[in-house]
Specification:
The protein has six helices and no strands. The protein is mainly alpha-helical. The chain is elongated and about 80 Å long.
């Protein structure tokens, strides 16, 4: 079964992904993207990658989609504000509780200082 030769734009995307990922193994890339290792090997060998794979690589390896698809900017995606949507609820609740405790301690200290000033 012959693999269709990708057009130059898709071949360029495949080449850029390979350039960006460097010496990473197909197995490592597969584990992080959720794509079968043999499929990853084919993509790295020049087969046109699926959109799902491109998105997964950009997300998992912090690859800039602007650089990959539009040849604009740098290879590495700019840091973004952390998203809370992937943080487990118990972790969020623990952090909220800790911040509430620190806030209460701060308010108590201010209140004690104000009481101390009122007495003198």
């Amino acid at each position: 079964m012959a693999v269709a030769k990708p057009d130059s734009a898709l071949a360029d995307i495949s080449r850029k992904i390979q350039q960006y990922l460097g010496d990473r193994t197909a197995r490592e890339i597969a584990e992080r993207t959720g794509v079968h290792p043999e499929t990853v090997r084919r993509y790295l060998a020049g087969m046109a990658p699926s959109l799902e794979f491109v998105v997964a690589v950009c997300r998992e390896f912090k690859l800039s989609a602007d650089w990959l698809l539009l040849d604009e900017g740098t290879m590495h995606r700019a840091p973004t504000t952390p998203s809370l949507e992937n943080v487990p609820v118990p972790t969020l609740l623990e952090e909220l509780h800790a911040r509430a405790d620190r806030f209460k301690s701060h308010i108590d200290a201010i209140s004690a200082d104000m009481v101390g000033r009122a007495v003198t």
